[in-house]
Amino acid sequence: xxxxxxxxxxxxxxxxxxxxxxxxxxxxxxxxxxxxxxxxxxxxxxxxxxxxxxxxxxxxxxxxxxxxxxxxxxxxxxxxxxxxxxxxxxxxxxxxxxxxxxxxxxxxxxxxxxxxxxxxxxx
Length: 123
Fold this sequence. Notes:
Elements: H1 3-21, E1 25-31, E2 42-48, H2 51-69, E3 75-77, E4 84-88, E5 92-98, H3 99-105, H4 107-110, E6 115-120
Helix pairs in contact: 1-2
């Protein structure tokens, strides 16, 4: 594993920890590394039960990544209504949805050629 892959692995672990801290639902990792011309290497997707919950999950991810690896999010969007919050870490994009929006957009099915890894199902 090279240094970039090691850094990416630690970042994913910190993102997942941030989601778990606030009990994000149905966490999935989509591996886009085998897809030509994808905008990043991984999508991490989860959902919350309300706009307040989705907002809190996204904030937890930002805080946990900064705390554990010292990296700030490059770009963020969607906090205003918290239906779909995007956190852009360059090589990793985090999508925190409300459940209905997640079902509607169904990002998992858009990447049919990518490996979708179930990290955690809802307890």
